[in-house]
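User: Okay, second chain of the day. Same drill as before: sequence in, structure tokens out.
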Amino acid sequence: MGTPMTIPTDWAALWRELASHDIQASDAGAAQMVERWRGVARRLDGGGKQDPDPLLDHVVSRLTPEMTVLDVGAGIGRWALPIARRVRRVTAVEPLPGMRQVLVERAAAQGIANLDVIDSPWLTAQVRPHDAVVAAHATYTTTDLVGFVRKMEACTRRSCYLVLRVPAHDGILGDLSERINRRWHDSPNFIVGYNLLLSVGFHPNVLMEPAAVRHWTDPTLDAALARAKRHLHLDDDRHDGAIREVLDRRLVLADGIYRWPDGMRSALIWWDTV
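Assistant: Same drill. Structure tokens below.
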């Protein structure tokens, strides 16, 4: 017998499918995201502990005071504001009004005046070239990742930086997605995005966050079930029994808190254009 033929993964089609179902793509999902990030901004600006960000530190280390930077999907300014303290000027592209409001308020409170804000989606934004372009977790709702990245490259004179989340290889969400959706990937992520870029001729560098992953936690199994259904885009109870069985078996209960093997880890994809 011959060796079975392996069908190559269509990374562009997979990204499109995952991005079209991302929770942030809906109005309700976008509103939830804005509220969550308002809370993050209050914690950061209220003296809360800010986690180290080696990916941001790497980007900042490659910037110089005379440079200009374009931040795509700037959100509340998690990257735009620290970068603005390093360079001559930052242009932040942010289409969500709630995010823009928080960004502008935070910049004013911190005395940052070298920041311009554009209220437009990236693919239709009219921007001039900058020395560097960054996009940290800003691509998950675009179905055209290649177009998004090619516009980044067209708008930079020196370097591009793209940050994507990295799914846990042994995560519960991958397990559940494979059972329910017949695919391991539950959302757009680094694995799909990086392979897609390779397939169209990009050969970028990668910097992975250290192995100390920040794991998700939930106070109850019901809260964990709600988290799983949110990520899997499920709005009925057809799969609740199967999800509970996996959660009950795989979550670790310690000090009254359920800890997931899944967590928050990111990778920086970057390349120079000169």
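The chain has one domain: 11-169+185-211+264-272.

User: Thanks, on to the next one.
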